[in-house]
Write a structure and sequence with these properties.
The complex is a heterodimer of chains A (about 350) and B (about 250).
Chain A (H helix, E strand, L loop, with lengths): L11 H29 L12 H7 L2 H17 L1 H4 L3 H5 L5 H4 L7 H20 L4 H6 L2 H11 L6 H30 L11 H19 L2 H12 L3 H25 L3 H9 L4 H37 L6 H10 L2 H29 L1
Helix pairs in contact in A: 1-3, 1-7, 9-17, 10-13, 10-15, 10-17, 11-13, 12-13, 13-15, 14-15, 15-16, 15-17, 16-17
Chain B lengths: L21 E5 L6 H8 L11 E2 L2 E2 L5 H9 L1 E4 L11 H6 L8 H5 L5 H13 L15 H14 L4 E5 L7 H18 L2 E6 L2 H7 L2 E6 L2 E6 L6 H8 L12
Parallel strand pairs in B: 1-6, 1-7, 4-5, 5-6
Antiparallel strand pairs in B: 2-3, 7-8
Helix pairs in contact in B: 5-6, 6-7
The chains are: A mainly alpha (about 350), B alpha/beta (about 250).
Chain lengths: ~350, ~250
């Protein structure tokens, strides 16, 4: 059975996908070009000031770009014979073999890509308001902070150490509670275990979707949710890091399951073992060492994250760091930052050592 | 048998294996030997066609019935496929999973008589003293003998061996093949064994079939096998590597 290679054989689905990609890319390039054009013609607002990037973004003709982009994308598809394959075909991996050989400078899509990258870079420079001169000349104010950080004050050392202990345990509890749930969820989230039946495939889809969603929500947002649920304090921090850790560990665990050697699974299946037995004998022994290693790494990450969680009231050392940052007590901030850095450094070394031993 | 992606691995196979035979399956890599063996215990589900074992249609079984059938059919793999981090004894015991109670088996716990039986199986492959070693501490030949002990533990009627000696040092091949031969000759187990090496086929098999491009191209005894049949199976370019008197 032959794969569809000829242009006539391309399916309707594939054609529309290619056109959609081309359209999107050309529209984005068009909008960036117009943005740069407006910016460099030096337009001034009613007050005589140069327009800011945000004001220019308001002036770009988005509908014109969308329509023009569609026309160009369709034109490119129709004129494919003359101008060569479009970027969409390149991204869907359907560029004809003879065109693949050409260096980028000899294809239109190569030039399109080059111009696209340039446009992105310059547009990005303006939109994020990069100002090299300011960066290089106005160090004065920041020097105060740096000086404070370099002269840590001992007055918060005691309180800082106590909250540091709280931070480490906070991260530990969040990790520990995440392990069993992530372990159970990682099996339905592994592609290689869920090909067999329709319910398994649905389980895969549901588990992956939910976990991706949970992971996409920042721990900071989870912290805000749990602070209003259980109140300010380390418990809210534990819950926030726990939810995020479940999602992160499920992903790491399931990817590990996907990369196991299927041989032992086959061998155990062939003995007439049931599904649970196959998982217990064919899968679990292979994934336990990497699971432990990921879990320790996760604890390490949770210690670092709990600082930020503390900023919004999730307990731990971040909780006393925030007011000192706000008040400009840079010496005390310096002490706390050093404590956090030392802990992260020790955790990093420890977790690397332990992981080395396990794997 | 067509794989996802459209590769047709087997087609038009009509093969009957008699009780007690040592059937060697010969053919180039990719000719469908593994697929054929794996269709028999349904590690792969054939897209078309039927497989009968002991008078039952294996291809129609599901769930518990399929597992009951698999208990009768032990499999030996080219890569041994032991659980590397388990002990040798635990690996042999896993051959008893099909008849074990679920919960104790999930805790890696087996009744005393199964443990005795497993030690007996290990003795028969000459590894009784290695029961407590971790499986990956053994050499390749020893690991394959553990795999044979695991197969024995299953107390099967049929053994499927997929290139059992292809990843072993040539000097160790006979030691492993002899254990399989004993099962066939002394225990009366039927053996289906895919092999590369014509010398081994001549030495151990009672019957020989050959696959080429997923089709059965030859069926006979090793004695009838000669240079022209060799070319038929392996193509005109091939030469027998050894001295089997072809």
């Amino acid at each position: 059975m032959a794969a569809p290679t000829s242009s006539a054989g391309r399916s309707w689905m594939q054609r529309s996908r290619i056109l959609a990609i081309d359209w999107a890319l050309i529209v984005i390039a068009w909008m960036m070009a117009e943005f740069l054009l407006l910016a460099f013609t030096g337009r001034r607002g009613p007050t005589g000031m140069l327009l800011t990037a945000e004001q220019i973004l308001d002036l770009v003709h988005y509908w014109v770009a969308a329509a023009g982009g569609l026309v160009l994308a369709v034109a490119w598809t129709l004129l494919e014979r003359v101008v060569g394959a479009s970027p969409g075909r390149s991204l869907t991996g359907s560029v004809p073999a003879d065109e693949k050989e050409l260096p980028w400078t000899q294809t239109l899509r190569g030039w399109f890509a080059a111009v696209f990258i340039e446009l992105t870079f310059f547009t990005g420079w303006l939109i994020t308001e990069l100002e090299l001169v300011t960066f290089l000349t106005k160090f004065g104010k920041a020097a105060d902070i740096v000086r404070g950080l370099a002269h840590p004050s001992a007055s918060v050392l005691h309180e800082g150490l106590i909250l540091l202990v709280q931070t480490i345990f906070l991260a530990f509890m969040a990790t520990a509670f995440a392990i069993p749930i992530a372990f159970v969820l990682s099996f339905p989230s592994a592609r290689n275990l869920t090909r067999g039946s329709a319910p398994a495939r649905i389980g895969y889809l549901v588990s992956r979707t939910v976990m991706n969603f949970v992971r996409a929500v920042e721990p900071l947002v989870w912290a805000l949710i749990f602070i209003s649920w259980v109140g300010i304090g380390p418990f809210a921090g534990v819950l926030a890091l726990w939810v995020h850790s479940v999602a992160a560990l499920t992903k790491l665990y399931s990817e590990q399951i996907e990369s196991i050697d299927p041989g032992p699974m086959d061998a155990i299946t062939a003995t007439g073992a049931s599904t649970l037995q196959v998982l217990r004998y064919g899968v679990v022994p292979q994934v336990i060492p990497p699971f432990l290693s990921f879990t320790i790494y996760r604890w390490d990450i949770n210690v670092r994250m709990s600082t930020i969680i503390g900023f919004v009231g999730g307990g731990g050392i971040g909780y006393i760091l925030k007011p000192r940052v706000d008040l400009g007590e840079w010496g005390e901030v310096g002490t706390l930052v050093l404590l956090i850095a030392a802990t992260v450094w020790v955790m990093d070394i420890l977790s690397a050592k332990i992981r080395e031993r396990i794997v | 048998m067509v794989y996802p992606g459209g590769v047709r691995a087997l087609a038009g196979i009509d093969l009957e294996v008699r009780d007690g035979e040592f059937l060697a399956v010969l053919g180039l890599s990719g000719s469908g030997k593994s697929t054929l063996l794996r269709c028999i215990n349904r590690l792969i589900n054939p897209t078309e066609g039927r497989v009968f074992i002991f008078g039952r249609e294996a291809t129609a079984l599901r769930g518990a019935e399929l597992r009951a059938l698999r208990r009768q059919v032990a499999m030996i793999f080219q890569q041994f496929n032991l659980v590397k981090r388990h002990t040798v004894l635990a690996n042999v015991l896993s051959g008893a999973l099909g008849r074990s109670a679920l919960l104790p088996s999930l805790a890696l716990s087996f009744p005393a008589e199964e443990q005795q039986r497993a030690l007996g199986c290990l003795d028969r492959v000459g590894l009784g003293d290695r029961a407590a070693s971790r499986a990956d501490a053994l050499s390749g030949g020893q690991q394959q003998r553990v795999a044979i002990a695991r197969a024995l533990m299953q107390e099967p009627q049929l053994i499927l061996a997929d290139e059992p000696v292809a990843s072993l040092d040539p000097a160790l091949r006979h030691s492993v093949m002899r254990h399989i031969e004993v099962l066939n000759r002394d225990e009366g187990l039927t053996v289906l064994c895919s092999l590369h090496d014509i010398d081994l086929v001549a030495r151990y098999a009672t019957r020989l079939v050959a696959l080429r491009g997923g089709r059965l191209v030859w069926d006979g005894t090793p004695g009838e096998f000669d240079r022209s049949t060799f070319k038929e199976i392996y193509g005109e370019e091939a030469e027998p590597a050894s001295s089997m008197g072809l």
